[in-house]
Every structure is written in structure tokens, then in C-alpha cells.
Amino acid sequence: MVCKVCGQKAQVEMRSRGLALCREHYLDWFVKETERAIRRHRMLLPGERVLVAVSGGRTPWPFGTC
Ligand SMILES: [Zn+2]
């Protein structure tokens, strides 16, 4: 399994999306997908603080505050 972006060994495979990514490109993808979801669903107003925690599935997810 190789990263769909760079062709290096993939660290994460998301079968439901047909996507495999190395660590670097997974982190890029995760940030962009999170930003896209926040904008699409208008979850935040400028200046608001957020605590994020995600669990579940076989793949570990990062969590933190923004
Ligand atoms: Zn990659």
C-alpha cells in the first residue's frame, strides 16, 4: 500500500474513501478536511476557542485545542 500523493509507504488506509496516505500527507489531509467541515457546517465564529477530541475506529486520531 502506497501513499496516493507521493508514492511512499502509506501509514493510513481509509478504505471508505479509497485513500491511502503516508504520515506527512495524512496530517495535511486531516487538517484540510477538518477546516473544510468547520466551514461547510459553520461550526465556529471568528475568535471562538474549541476543544477537540475524536475516538473510535481502528485508526488513532489526534486531538488537541485550537
Ligand atoms: Zn505521501
- Order of strands side by side in the largest beta sheet? 1-2
> Structural class per helix/strand content?
alpha+beta
Whole-number mean pLDDT: 87
Query: What bound compounds does this protein have?
Result: zinc ion
Helical content class: 25-40%
How many structural domains does the protein architecture include?
1
Strand tally, please? Answer: 4
Rounded to the nearest angstrom, the radius of gyration is 14 Å
Strand content: 15-25%
In N-to-C order, the SSE pattern is: EEHEE
Shape, per Cα inertia axes: elongated
N-to-C CA distance: 32 Å
What composes the largest sheet?
Answer: 2 strands, antiparallel
Q: Tally the helices: what do you get?
A: 1
Poorly predicted regions are none
